[in-house]
Design brief:
Blueprint: H1 8-16, H2 25-36, H3 41-51, H4 55-64, E1 76-81, H5 84-88, H6 91-102, E2 115-120, E3 132-134, E4 137-139, H7 147-153
Parallel strand pairs: 1-2
Antiparallel strand pairs: 1-3, 3-4
Length: about 150
């Protein structure tokens, strides 16, 4: 089980950067996620209190948008495209290299909170298949022997 210590002072610093209005909710949650790589429950509770928004509303927003995660995620998010072109050109082999090299399966995070591997549907870069995205950097025509080098480089 991956765990992370959450500093309430850091949460308060993040919340204090924004206006204390209900309209700031999504921005505050984005800032918290950027800081902690997920939305800790304690942070959602503090956000609800500081913005005078019901916790149920904060929870609703956090679970509605795919960009938010309620589970700890790694500093580096690795996404492997499994669209048709990428699938045909070896996306499964890329995933296999990541599983063997990092010791985690898609949807999991390494114990040291350094990497999270995710599978995504087509990202619209079929000409670059197979495609792997490390954080926000796209790597196309990925060869199996370069997967871990690309991950550790970024």
């Amino acid at each position: 089980m991956v765990s992370q210590v959450v500093d309430i002072e850091k949460i308060n610093e993040v919340i204090d950067r924004s206006p204390k209005t209900p309209g700031a909710l999504i921005g505050v949650l984005q800032d918290i996620q950027r800081e902690f790589h997920y939305l800790p429950r304690m942070a959602m509770e503090a956000t609800a209190k500081e913005l005078c928004v019901p916790l149920s509303k904060v929870w609703s927003v956090a679970t509605f948008y795919n960009a938010f995660s309620l589970k700890p995620r790694g500093e580096n998010i690795i996404r492997v495209c499994k669209g048709t072109a990428c699938h045909i050109k070896g996306a499964d082999l890329i995933l296999e290299q990541l599983e063997n090299g990092l010791g985690i399966k898609p949807g999991e995070t390494t114990e040291d909170l350094k990497y999270t591997v995710e599978v995504v549907n087509c990202v619209g870069a079929c000409a670059m298949a197979p495609l792997m995205i490390v954080n926000d950097k796209y790597h196309g025509n990925v060869r199996c022997d370069r997967v871990l080098k690309l991950v550790k480089k970024d």
